[in-house]
Amino acid sequence: MGQTVPFWMAPILALFVTTIVFVLAAWINTNVVTRHVDASVSGLRAEMNGSMNSLCAEMNGSMNSLRAEMNGSMNALRAEMKQGFSELRLEIEQRIQPLEHREERLEESRGLVRP
Q: How far is CA 111 from CA 95, 101, 103, 104, 105, in A?
């Protein structure tokens, strides 16, 4: 005697097979999308690294030129300050000299003696 298959077995098996095919297709699509995204990200990283390297090189060049300009300005300012201090010292010495002679004359005229 032959076995009879229940009437609901065929739809359940069809549903089961459909689910397996659906899951397999979703897994394959996910892997394809993941590889595509990874490739895109790698390309963007490489592009960004190149852009960043060129930007860093440009900034270093700009910073070096600014540093050289600042050093030149600072050296000029130092020279100006030295010149200004020299002129100020000379002016002070010129103003003090007559006062020293005046002090000596006052001491002589009043009879004061320096120790």
A: 25, 15, 12, 10, 10
CA–CA distances in Å: residue 91 to residues 61, 94, 95, 100, 114: 45, 5, 6, 15, 27
Rounded to the nearest angstrom, the gap between the alpha carbon of residue 69 and the centroid of all alpha carbons in its chain is 20
Q: What is the DSSP letter of 6?
A: P
* pTM value > 0.70: no
Amino acid at the residue 74: M
Tokens of 68: 């050289």
Gap between the Cα atoms of 35 and 69, Å rounded = 50
Reading the chain (115 residues) residue by residue, the pLDDT tens digits are 568 878 888 899 999 999 999 999 999 999 999 999 999 999 999 999 989 999 999 999 999 999 999 999 999 999 999 999 999 999 998 888 887 777 777 777 776 655 5
Give the C-alpha separation, 75 to 103, whole Å.
41
